[in-house]
Design a protein that fits this description.
By secondary structure, this protein is an all-alpha fold. It has 4 helices and no strands. It has one domain. Helix content is 77%, strand content 0%.
């Protein structure tokens, strides 16, 4: 459970760090959004170091969780309900993530 929560926190930090500059660039929001964006991206990088396996394996498994969190963000923040294809894609990615992250050691 700790591993999954850490991956989700890592994904949220990256998404927030990228979403805030998006708001500034595409929706004419304040340039000051870049400050919390930079902090969020620094948090993202730090969170990646807390995973207990090799960096390459962390990055590979993280990708699956990131996709799931991004689709949840689509629904929660953008207000766009995921399609069945979105859900199926997330399921495939999370299955791959599980194979990578939880393999026997």
């Amino acid at each position: 459970m700790r591993t999954i929560l850490l991956y989700v926190a890592t994904a949220l930090a990256e998404i927030v760090g990228c979403y805030l500059p998006y708001l500034w660039l595409k929706q004419d929001r304040s340039v000051w959004l870049l400050v919390p964006a930079a902090i969020s991206l620094a948090l993202f990088a730090w969170l990646l170091t807390l995973h207990e396996t090799a960096a390459g394996r962390v990055y590979a498994a993280y990708g699956g969780v990131y996709i799931g969190v991004a689709i949840a963000w689509l629904w929660a923040v953008d207000g766009i309900r995921p399609t069945a294809w979105d859900v199926a894609g997330v399921a495939v990615c999370l299955a791959g993530m599980g194979l990578i992250a939880f393999q026997p050691r």
